[in-house]
Each structure stands twice: as structure tokens, then as C-alpha cells.
Amino acid sequence: xxxxxxxxxILATMSTSAxxxxxxxxxxxxxxxxxxxxxxxxxxxxxxxxxxxxxxNLPVDxxxxxxxxxxxxNAYTNEVNAFELSDKEITFTLEDIEKNNAVATNADAHSFxxxxxxxxSANYQFQKLSSxxxxxxxxxxxxxxxxxxxxxxxxxxxxRSVTNFYNAVAEDGTTVGWGSAPFDKIxxxxxxxxxxxxxxxxxxxxxxxxxxxxxxxxxxVPQFSEYGGTSQASDIxxxxxxxxxxxxxxxxxxxxxxxxxTDNCDDKYQPFSTCIEVINNQTTRGLFNKHATKWTLDNAFxxxxxxxxxxxxxPDEDETENTTFISNALAxxxxxxxxxxxxxxxxxxxxxxxxxxxxxxxxxVIDFIxxxxxxxxxxxxxxxxxxxxxxYATKRLEGTLRNKFFYHDIATGTTVYPDSYxxxxxxxxxxINNQGYIVGEGEVxxxxxxxxxAAFIYKIGDDKITNLNDLLPCxxxxxxxxxxxxxxxxxxxxxxxxxxxVATKTVEKRNSLGEVVTDVNGKTEYESVAVAVKLxxxxxxxxxxxxxxxxxxxxxxxxxxxWYGLLLLPLIAFRRVFRF
Length: 580
Description:
The structure is a single chain. With 580 residues, this protein is mostly beta strands. It has helices at 8-11, 70-85, 94-99, 102-105, 107-119, 255-264, 272-282, 317-322, 554-557; strands at residues 22-27, 34-42, 48-55, 132-138, 141-145, 164-169, 175-179, 184-188, 197-201, 207-211, 217-220, 231-238, 242-252, 289-298, 303-310, 327-332, 338-346, 349-361, 364-366, 378-383, 388-397, 400-409, 414-416, 427-432, 437-444, 452-459, 466-467, 486-493, 499-508, 526-538. Strand 21 and strand 22 form a beta hairpin.
């Protein structure tokens, strides 16, 4: 858990006896019309937010596409060849798409167009689509939060051209996240040509936002907003006087980036905003200098202060003219101590810039991971009210870069890397509560081809992580079928030691139009999907031994560690999306 207040009444029930517990799993609900659902944050008062992905029936605007272009003709030829390799006959033609509305009636045609548009996403003469949207969980239902999206002038519903990240929720239900502006289809004429062509442009690449429980929206306009600027909001905490929000925002651009804009963005061969997008995408670390930021808001949602938290390095004059530097605050506790990432220098080679876990406290930016031990990247993802951080750091293990979860005590300056499922298993600490319980996920399956994610819980001071799947039932209600859920990610733990995360389950397979898929014999096909879930401790529960005799030892071994009174907690009934 991030930034939650200490629940003294819960601590009063804790016991020092070595106990174990199982968990009851409850689905939180899914967004209608989406294949996958995820949890991103939960407040102590029970507000839950997340994201949905794999939206069905994404709207395809065929009016802007010239179907005589070799680009789409070649894509269709490749699609025909792929069908033939699978001993299938293709069910649509390009003419069916252009003239017979096949994208609305033929799932093969629809999925072809979705993949085609994804493959040409760097070409701004084609429609932009995103299958990711924000959701708020309410009484077993998932309700979409459109953030910056708007109704489309070209087809029913919103544009589906934005990417939304819904990151954190405060005790009163106020939420924060960030998203892109919707793309607008305009007519643009390239110099020396006579016919205008459709182009897709937008006002900004990303913008943070605060949304009150009642729906009031407060965009976080960056300090440097020229060319749209950027901002992100990653976490929020409620205070007596209002709110603390952390993230990052653009402060400016280096001189060389400005020269590139001046020389190339002349509105002759592409719209000005498209030129900005291209430069941003093609430039290492992007177009803008983006620094970690803390915003303070009052109870009326007025921004009362904006504090730039800085970097873990001091760029020299030549660097400020030629390159961008980035830091980002990803979480904050009730004391206003923020954690995240920052560019910093390699310890014995100043010209090499790394991105390392960091915290932001009392005007300082501290990157605390010891590079001399070959750590060369990572993120701080959460902090509790005792100033203990969790996240992951990156180093080379058995010849491959792996991520290893850690916890760091600011007071003592100590960093601990608990054992994962096995030596080269990548692992991530996503959330920590005030009792020192950490949840996250790690890789199981020793060979690279068989690796998959399994959620874990860990108590500071114990030797091993515990696979949360070991604390779930072995069988479904019939007593013979294997349990239908597998916990892949644990995203949040609260002060009741309830865990919220992502599980996989098997469901009927659906195509891109949302229709159930059958095989050549008419039998229904099945697939694994991600669902958002809550795990509640079961008082007096016992751990069941599900493993067959030849199961790999690490899969079940860790389930024997101490739980310090988890059974005494009441049973309360009832989504790492970060980037720079």
C-alpha cells in the first residue's frame, strides 16, 4: 500500500505467534466491452480504481483511408498469405471493408484493420486508436472514466484515440492520473501538392489530472506548456488542508531540440504538431526536460503551490543545451516524502546517465541503490508512513538483465533484496503497508520460455516471499476441479492486509467484435484473461497442499513463514503502469 494512515486498531490485534492463513478471492467486476481488467489503487476507505484493456468493437474510420495505397494493399496480401499458411480461406476483401462495412460485421476484417492501424501508428495520416481506458469500481461494476477523451465527430461514442493511466485514489475518493489529448482529424495540404489529405493531430502528448469524487476535473498544466508540454500525476494523499499530488512536468527543452523544431517544423510537409510528435518519439528521453513535481491543492481543489523536486544530478552547461533530463515522483506518503526515479550519473563514468530508484525529501533527491554492486536501473514504486520504500532494481544475473524487488529504510539507509522465487527470477515490490507487508509479483518457471508471473506477499524481516497462489484453495466448489484463478500480480495491500491485484482465469474466447469464437467443428474455444480481484484473509484458515509429488520445490516452499496474527484480522466483505 502507498501513503495510507496507520491503523492502530488493527495493530492492537496482532499476535507474535507463528500463524498462517488462506485467502478468499473476490472478483471486482469488469468493464462491459473489455477483455481485461486491472487494479491500480485502493484507498483505506474502500475506493477502487484501475484500467481496462482489450476493448471490443474499436471504431475504425475507413473514410480517411485510400485503399489503393500500396501500404494497405501489401498488408492485405500478407493477411491472405497468413490465412493460407493456416489452411484457412480469408473471409473478406479490401472492397468489403471499403464499400460493404465489413469492419462492423466481419471479425477478421475488423481485427485486420486494427492491426494495420497499429502497425502504422507512427504515420499521422492514419487514425490513432487505443484499447486502454480508465475505470472506477463501484458496487461490483466497473465504470469507465474517459479523462481527456471526447465524443467523436466521425462515429458514435468517444474517439478512443487517447491513452489513459488512472493511478491513485485518496481517502475521500479523489483520483489522479494522466492521459493524452484526443486526436483530431484535420485536412492538410502538403507543399507543392493541390489536394488536402486527412492528418491526425492533438494538442498535447500527456497531461496530469485530478478528479474529485463529484467529478470536478483539475488538469495539471505544466510549467513549460509550449508545444503542449507534458505532465503526469501518479499519486495523491488527503491531508487536513487538502491534497498532495505527485508526478512530473515539463520545465523546458534543450537548445538543440529547439533548433531542430525551428529547422524542421515549418508546416510545409506535415502539420506543426505532428512534427513535434515525431521529434519527441525519435529523441532519446524525449523532447522535454521533465522533473518530479509535488502539487498542493486546498479542499476546494485550487492549486496552492507547485514544487519542482529536482534531479539526482546537476547537469553541466553543455548537457543542458544538448539533452533532456528526467525524474518522476511515483508515490508519496502522508508526510509528503515522495519516491520514484531520477536520471543520475554512473558512479565511475560521469558521461554515462542511468535512471535509478530515488526518493525526494527535504529538498534533496537521493538515489540510494549501490551501483558498485552492478545495479544499473530500477524504480521506487511505493512508500509507507514509516518511510520504508519498495520497488525494484536492475542488474545482470546469469547473463541477462533482471529486476529484483527491494525495500529501503530511509532512517537507517539500508537496502535489502529479499530472495525471489529463484536466483534469476525478476521480481517487483508494488505496495507496502505500515505493518511492513509488501506485495508484488515475481517470475516462476526456471526456463525463459516457461516464465510467468506469480503474485507474492512478504513480511519485512522474513527470509522468503510467499506465493499468494499457495494461500488460495486447491479446488473449486465442486471439490475436484482445479481452482479457477491464478494470482499473477499483487498491486495494493491495505492495513487490513487485504490484497488487491490481478488474477487470470479461463473464459470463452471472444474476437475483436466481442463475439464468442468457435473452432472448425463448432466447438467453443477458450482463452485466459486478466481480471481485477480482492483477496481477503480468512480467519482460522489453513494452507492446503496442492502440489503433486514432482512439483518444483520453490513453488510451495515459501508458504511456511510467519504471518504474525493475520488470522486475527476481521474478514471484511466487499491496476505498473508507469513510464517517463
